[in-house]
Amino acid sequence: QSLWSQGPSDVGLIKGILPVQVRPKTEYWPSEKAFCDIKQALTSNLALALPNYSKPFIEMVDCKDKYMTSVLGQQHGDKLRPIAYFSSKLDNVARALPHCVRAVVAASMAVEASAGIVLFHPRPLRSHMQWLLYYCKPI
Q1: What is the DSSP string of 7-55?
Q2: Nearest CA to 68 among 129, 109, 118?
């Protein structure tokens, strides 16, 4: 299963990651209102935590079509608390690659995007693509 669930308004990201206090009440909105609601929820003080360098980081990566999406988080009780969200469009060369190779490129982009926050702390990658995790283990 993908990190973000598929749906008419792609609210899987919000439902799966944001705390209950900041989740939107409805499942489907007109596109302009959806964008404003998502932007407001993602930038609220309840949505993102500050990094705690005494706890391990976890990075969840996904690659759909032409985009890399990633969430950097840390365990907070029994939940994963997001610290940062990343998304980036794959370049033309990466988009032409087979899906399995695109996923490795997306993982590399996610690690690079979060490097400024994580600094040199280790972080496991999580993905719905289990084979990707096998190839991304440190040697």
Answers
A1: -SS--HHHHHHS-GGGS-S-S---HHHHHHHHHHHHTSTTT-PPP-TTS
A2: 109
- Domain residues for the domain of 112 are 57-135
* 43, 71: one domain: no
pTM, rounded to two decimals: 0.62
In a domain, 112, yes or no: yes
Residue 12: inside a domain: yes
CB-based burial label for 62 (10 Å; 0-12, 13-18, 19+): buried
Half-sphere exposure of 120 (CA within 13 A, CB side): 0
Residue 135's pLDDT band, with cuts at 50, 70 and 90, is low
pLDDT digits (tens, 9 = 90+) for 63-86: 887 899 999 999 888 888 889 989
Span 100-122, pLDDT tens digits: 888 889 999 999 999 999 998 98
Regarding whether 124 and 64 lie in a shared domain, the answer is: yes
Contacts of 50 (CB under 8 A, 6+ apart): 83
Based on the fold, state whether residues 34 and 77 are members of the same structural domain.
Answer: no
